[in-house]
């Protein structure tokens, strides 16, 4: 049984980390298109700057797990942008909302607890991250939450999220077949 190392890609990402991340994300969109709101055709057309912004933005963090020790080539991933990036997520005035997205574990590594390790690492990053922009705009009186969108028929995803502390968000509009889930951190 392989041992997994879960780590965050510290900005600035190296060229090899950037290339590995891009390959990983595009592979996930090809292998599990039904799981994601985005799609391969959209992201394969992204410029290098868009990929770099995903990894180097001070408001986002990519968390990956690797079966290797060199922290370059990795299989599973999730990425966590913080509040200022998504107007859509401003539901409650004093919530500092982090969005967890692009969660994926390569099929060869599923069912071994890697997904749960990744989600927990994301929750920990959100718990400890200080978002200066949010603090300046909203002040200190806020509650940190992590939110995500999952399709109703994604049993693996919904089980993973409920096992890691997420519950359905009441009263937030979602498209047909989707639901928002939330964890307080
Ligand atoms: C969802 C996904 C990330 C889960 O990753 P994983 O590494 O297999 O998950 P884990 O092994 O950590 O399992 C976490 C929990 O979910 C459960 N689970 C995992 N896959 C499951 C499945 N297919 N059916 C039911 N439960 C499942 C596990 O039993 C475990 O629960 P437990 O703690 O009670 O044992 C993976 O299946 C995946 O990448 N799917 C395709 C992409 C996707 O759906 N992403 C989410 C988009 S919102």
TrEMBL record:
Residues 24-185 form the N-acetyltransferase domain. One of its GO terms (molecular function) is acyltransferase activity, transferring groups other than amino-acyl groups. SUPFAM superfamilies: Acyl-CoA N-acyltransferases (Nat). Pfam families: Acetyltransf_7. Keywords: Acyltransferase, Transferase. InterPro entries: Acyl_CoA_acyltransferase, GNAT_dom, YpeA/RimI_acetyltransf. This is N-acetyltransferase domain-containing protein.
């Amino acid at each position: 049984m392989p041992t997994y190392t879960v780590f965050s890609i510290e900005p600035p990402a190296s060229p090899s980390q950037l290339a590995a991340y891009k390959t990983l994300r595009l592979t996930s969109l090809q292998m599990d298109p039904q799981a994601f709101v985005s799609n391969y055709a959209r992201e394969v057309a992204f410029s290098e700057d868009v990929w770099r912004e995903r990894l180097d933005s001070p408001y986002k963090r990519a968390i990956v797990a690797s079966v290797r020790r060199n922290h370059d080539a990795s299989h599973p991933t999730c990425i966590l942008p913080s509040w200022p990036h998504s107007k859509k997520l401003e539901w409650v005035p004093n919530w500092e909302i982090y969005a967890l997205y692009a969660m994926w574990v390569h099929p060869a590594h599923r069912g071994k607890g890697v997904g749960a390790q990744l989600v927990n690492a994301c929750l920990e990053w959100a718990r400890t991250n200080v978002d200066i922009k949010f603090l300046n705009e909203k002040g200190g009186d806020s509650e940190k939450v992590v939110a995500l969108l999952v399709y109703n028929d994604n049993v693996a995803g919904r089980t993973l999220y409920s096992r890691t502390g997420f519950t359905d968000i009441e009263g937030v509009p979602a498209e047909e077949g989707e639901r928002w889930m939330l964890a307080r951190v």
